[in-house]
Amino acid sequence: MSVLKNTEICQNQKKKLIMNFKEFAESRKSVRGFLDKPVPRELIDEIIDAAKWAPTSYNTQTWHIHAVTGDVLNKIRKGNIEETMAGKPHVRDFPYKEEYEGVHRKNQIDVAIQLFEAMGIERDDKEKRMDWMLRGFRQFDAPVSLVLTYDKYLEPAAISQFGLGSLAYGIVLAAWDRGIGCVINGQGIMQSHVVREHAQIPDDQNIMICIAMGYPNDDFPANHVRSVRADNGDFVKYIGFEDS
Fold first, then answer.
1. Whole-prediction pTM value?
2. C-alpha–C-alpha distance, residues 70 and 198, integer Å
3. How would residue 97 be classed by pLDDT, with cut points 50, 70 and 90?
4. 172: nearest Cα among 136, 207, 213
């Protein structure tokens, strides 16, 4: 076979791979309702084994994962709810902005409207709105939670947090590829001392985020919600290109 023909085959394979990845990435969605079905440890390990190839600055791999299930996860749910209902302030292990503004706030509200409509939650239904909020603190009743952490000595840790973001995206994609749904869940670690105690997270690590995961419940209305992404022109600026 000629070199030209080989090159043409490789290009076609790359084109197909790119197209398939785009379709796959677009198919992924956040899952907020799960079946009462355990996820095997071997499957979780397989997901992490695929996700760990996410890019990380200088290959430093500045991340830890604490996979939690069963009674331990139930204790975290209980502690989160009790602390929140008692009015305890939200506590994370690193500074963060509590309120979004502008277009970011609009995006947040838009998906909330989609979810409330899917779940039949009216604007003035305080009981249902509260229950929905508490679902986040309950880790959406998922059978597994992955708690992502990094070493405290890395603070200020923006580049390490970037790496954990890459890892988190790798996890949700690898899980989706294997029929496991995920939602990246900030509420689940807003009482970080509760998570730290029950998940036995060392004091020299900061908790970054958690990922609730499990088999999707197709009958759960919110699982049919698909958030919208902005057009590239809304957030991409090309500089130095011939047509820019």
1. 0.90
2. 11
3. confident
4. 213
